């Protein structure tokens, strides 16, 4: 539970020579399960946080405070390093500073600030995407770096430039963002239906960005069919997995509720639910027993 | 989303002639799934709230504010009537009043206040259970009733007397609690390893309590093998189901994380996860699209 | 504490023939004092909420959730009708809907949504102010009206058009906003150093806006030297007072701390502090004593 | 804003040879003013937190979460070391552990856990006070020490023994509490109308406790007429001042609201309110201007 330690572990991953998966987690239990299975990095995107805490789609209606609350719930009990995508910092550079302060306090290990105009503008067409100017983005990233208290907190620049502007734009932005003092570049690979993984020279594009920024890259796995070692060679160090875990949870919930609603016996669910022992482990029951023993008799 | 409406629906169930199941829900998504499947009443016990929001066991370490926050998250988006067990009201009668005010504000449909001494006392043996005096419990229940703003909010007295004191104690308490103005009696059936369902005359005992209180009963299903119609005949109107849903979610999460951790392809999970369409439905995507259409162009 | 009742009282004031003062309140105690003195409407501007809950200037760094939390603290114990200025709704029309839902839930009686571009844009000059288009503003106001659950909640359109665009702009916007279904027009009178009260024909301008909108007006008192009856004749129904209360509190705090820091006797402060009786009244001590008496013996 | 630094400063005061005043602060602005005046330690008692965040009397209706939220608001912007009295830790030893974790996370510098039975028990007479057993209190204090993450966080044992049990009880408890690993003894001097300052040999009693515990003492100033140097000689290192600041704020608010309510001109308040310059200083306006300059153009 030492947040600095968790941040340093993430820095080790970024500085290493492998491409590590960050799996999506969304509440204390999912984080505990992911950790028990062996993951070292969790990812709570703004999208996933909206879905799970508000039952709302990825349309930027979650507030910074609500996001930080959920991060705090997770980091109170999780040993994972946690990566979040803090959208565009919820406003201008001053809002970015508050964002960094609030999510740092909540215990996050890494956050990204992105260069897309958010939330959706009045009159903006469905597929249309706009980026803020390089100057504005750099100002925000510099504000993010200045807003950090714990120097081990990782700050990444997330850019949609590869999708929206192409490789030249991405290279220019990555270079500028790098000079703002960030620790990594998080490349959006899929924006409003445009998916860069289908480009034949995508590995070259990743390489170009990596070379320009001289910083480790982070990507969303999306529907990438690329080989892990090829991505590693492009400087990709963190690969964020998708929303399968929450979708698996939803499917299991639906089947369980349907069984119970149709009058099925709870006992018949035995093979489909975690055992009492597993549940006890997840809630750290042994430590509580130990504390009762130590302090209450 | 009209909380008074949800409370009135619960009152209809209590006043009816059937025994309705309340299924356990713990966050916005689980509540949405339960509702989609057909349930009308959700149950968020203190135990379940501890497990899911703190990853902590059922040892009364969750605060009233944390509980109310989670209720609010659920009731912001759920059409279910929600029943919660508010432990002993987190202190004395003044704390009970605040408890009622806070959870009512959070949108709950029904809450119970129980007569067990909580949290565990210093030196209390594992199996030992103590109830507060009838007078103290009645004071707390009267405070609960007085603390309610919306008269449609259901207040139940939860008693462990049947387990701890036997049927005579339960009858005496049910009668006294009923006169405090509560709307239902919630009978604990399993306390510290003692399970009343194994008693041969348990139906008679339920009947005696129901007759004494002249109020509908609520029970936890536990491992009851009793027939629903027999329980209905004893005045049982709500049967709270167990923690299978969260345990099913945990199992699904573990399998998903294991698959991903061992390098399995996300695509292979397709049959085990909710479809994008189902996820969209759960987050009310159509309404959001409609609002974008209506107000942003 | 019935929020609908408080909203209806505010509607009575808006529908009346007088111009009523809304005094600034910022926490439970200030609201209690204002009510004890005789005020019926409190005003918690975003600016005042930033100052008092974050010790931050009026630069839009307060989140919606933080604002709603402070409103809730006040409305839990205050009988005042509370007016808030919810900035621009913290984003686009979807954010406006959430804003209305959250502050309505927190108990507010009235809120305004404004047409200024917020927060400050990158590169925006100090004195420069931009308004969103009429179409965008109307979309947001329609979303606000649609987001309301309690029809008694007052929704006002706040416009800086009189300052930024002049009377013609203000008339055009007031007319359009009125058709969006809002209940009042809140005219900004002082934006970035430009103060409309110095205009010789300002009463005519107010009258023109009022006639166009056919809605009651709300103003900030600012340094207006206009007579109350003249404003009333222009349709002004609510006049928001300034930040004197919090500034008076700060001065009293400084003098008290200085006295104590320099070793002065606490007893010497007697004439400068509220009496124990007044403090007891503010915290509703008599009711608590009554509850202790009723429910705890 | 480095909480460890603030804790270490408090430890320096405890280890020193002077008796330092801790002045009561209750929100971000009061903390900022106290710091500007020269205070180094602030005190937010549970009582003061109840009054200011709930407008409720000192009857233990504030939740741990609400208390921690207010601490966080203060410590986000204050350079003071902050001392809080965390009542009895809101339950048993497990609740004490959570209390320590939550208030430590919120940024507090020191907290005390007390040995009084709280909240008031059913049937408890007005003047009656009960302490938990030494064993139970020691268990809670050991749990508090174990619950701490930052070793610089100060944990004090607060005891009402001097009032309730006399000097022998206080000595015995102080000795036992000291062995539990706490950093200071906070002696209650006034409980339910009994005030130890009127005892002729009170200095001897303080000395005896200090000698038994071999730990620095903390006291509430109350209506003590004792000389500071005499208290210092008894090992008293921190003297908590009373509620004069909030009472001064209330008086100033009342006078201001009365002036405004009776139609007085705001301008006439000039000599009674903080200047715009002072308000700007309190909200750190210069830093914000600097950030706008640095990151937004």
Give your account of this protein's structure:
The structure is a homotetramer of 297-residue chains. Chain A is an alpha/beta fold and 297 residues long. Helix content of chain A is 48%, strand content 14%. The first copy, chain A, has 13 helices and ten strands. Chain A has helices spanning 3-15, 28-37, 46-54, 64-75, 93-106, 134-147, 161-164, 167-179, 202-213, 228-233, 244-261, 276-282, 285-295; strands spanning 20-24, 41-45, 81-85, 110-114, 154-159, 184-187, 190-191, 194-195, 217-220, 236-240. The first copy, chain A, has an eight-stranded parallel beta barrel, surrounded by eight helices. In chain A, strand 4 (110-114), helix 6 (134-147) and strand 5 (154-159) form a beta-alpha-beta unit. In chain A, helix 4 (64-75) runs parallel beside helix 5 and helix 6 (134-147) runs parallel beside helix 8 (167-179). Chain A is globular, with a radius of gyration of 20 Å. The model of chain A has no long low-confidence stretch (mean pLDDT 96). At the A-B interface, helix 2, helix 3, helix 11, helix 12 and helix 13 of A face helix 2, helix 3, helix 11, helix 12 and helix 13 of B.
Keywords:
homotetramer, alpha/beta, 48% helix, 14% strand
Overview in brief:
Four copies of one chain form a homotetramer. With 297 residues, chain A is α/β, with parallel strands linked by helices.
How would you describe the oligomerization state of the chains in this entry? homotetramer
Mean pLDDT of chain A: 96
Shape of chain A: globular
Helicity level of chain A = 40-55%
How far is it from the N-terminal to the C-terminal residue of chain A, by CA?
A: 27 Å
If you compute it from the alpha carbons, what radius of gyration of chain A comes out, rounded to the nearest whole angstrom? 20 Å
- How much β-strand is present in the residues of chain A? 5-15%
């Amino acid at each position: 539970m030492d947040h600095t330690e968790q941040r340093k572990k993430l820095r080790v991953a970024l500085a290493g020579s492998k491409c590590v998966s960050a799996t999506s987690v969304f509440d204390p239990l999912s984080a505990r399960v992911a950790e028990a299975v062996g993951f070292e990095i969790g990812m709570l995107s703004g999208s996933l946080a909206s879905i799970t805490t508000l039952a709302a789609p990825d349309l930027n209606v979650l507030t910074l405070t609500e996001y930080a609350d959920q991060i705090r719930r997770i980091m109170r009990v999780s040993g994972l390093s946690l990566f979040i995508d803090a959208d565009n910092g919820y406003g201008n550079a001053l809002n970015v500073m508050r964002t960094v302060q609030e999510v740092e306090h909540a215990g996050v290990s890494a956050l990204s600030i992105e260069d897309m105009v958010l939330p959706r503008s009045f009159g903006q067409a469905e597929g249309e995407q706009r980026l803020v100017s390089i100057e504005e983005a750099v100002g925000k990233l510099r504000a993010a770096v200045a807003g950090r208290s714990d120097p081990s907190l990782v700050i990444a620049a997330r850019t949609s430039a590869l999708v929206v502007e192409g490789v030249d734009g991405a290279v220019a932005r990555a270079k500028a963002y790098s000079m703002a003092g960030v620790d990594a570049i998080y490349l959006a690979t899929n924006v409003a239906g445009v998916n860069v993984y289908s480009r034949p020279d995508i590995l070259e594009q990743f390489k170009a960005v990596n070379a320009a920024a001289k910083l480790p890259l982070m990507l969303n796995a999306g529907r990438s069919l690329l080989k892990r070692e090829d991505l590693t060679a492009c400087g990709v160090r963190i690969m964020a997995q998708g929303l399968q875990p929450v979708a698996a949870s939803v499917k299991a919930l639906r089947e369980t509720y349907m069984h119970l609603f149709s009058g099925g016996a709870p006992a018949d669910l035995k093979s489909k639910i975690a055992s009492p022992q597993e549940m006890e482990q997840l809630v750290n029951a042994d430590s509580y027993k130990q504390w009762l023993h130590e302090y209450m008799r």
